[in-house]
Amino acid sequence: MPKVKIVYCSITGNDEEIADVLDEKFQELGCEVDVSEMGQTDTSDFLDNDICVIATYTYEDGIVPEEALDFYEDLQEEDLSGKIYGVCGSGDHYYDDYCRAIYEFGKVFDKIGAVSGANPVEVELAPEEEDINNLDNFAEELFTKFQNQ
Fold first, then answer.
1. Cα separation of 2 and 82, whole Å?
2. What is the pLDDT of residue 60?
3. Rounded distance, CA 62 to CA 77, Å?
4. Among 43, 53, 57, 126, which residue is least crowded by beta carbons within 10 Å?
């Protein structure tokens, strides 16, 4: 049974909702899932899991949210070679740097040896039905990538 760690950073509740959607889908797929808020999580928690997921929003000027900065910096010191990862999160098209923090976390995962298991999922504000379908597909792709490695 694959172990999945989902870490989210949420200010409005949108990314917590994204994490909940993923939690439900991974459990349907038969995974053991642990979900936690980024500020309450140590990056080493990813070491004991097969699939690592980050759901985050993007702060002003396209940067990683302030409450996620320590986690973001600490993650760069881990070695997640061979772990499957996925990044997703919410954004608002009002801002120029829509969902950019998602890709910043993806770059870190690539740098520390993790393997992308699915394309990033961008959600405009709160997840709607189409977003939930996209998140379900995202979870299935990550699960399949793990099974096929």
1. 14
2. 75
3. 23
4. 126
N-term to C-term CA, the chain: 14
Contact between residue 146 and residue 2 where contact means Cβ atoms under 8 Å apart: yes
Q: Cα–Cα distance between 78 and 112 in angstroms, integer?
A: 6
The Cα 27–Cα 105 span in angstroms is 24
Closest CA to 95 of 119, 129, 125: 125
pTM score, whole prediction:
0.97
What DSSP designation does 45 have? G
Closest to 68 measured CA to CA, from 102, 18, 21, 118: 102
Domains and CATH numbers, the chain: 3-147 (3.40.50.360)
Give every residue of the chain whose pLDDT is below 50, as ranges: none
Q: Read out DSSP for 67-92?
A: GGHHHHHHHTT---TT-EEEEEEEE-
Residue 122 tokens, joined: 């961008």
Residue 4 has a pLDDT of: 98
- Nearest to residue 109, comparing CAs of 149, 80, 148, 69? 80
> What is the predicted pLDDT for the residue at 141?
98
Q: What is the pLDDT of residue 78?
A: 98
Q: Are 77 and 42 in contact (CB under 8 A)?
A: no
What's the rounded Cα separation, in Å, for the pair 114 and 80? 5
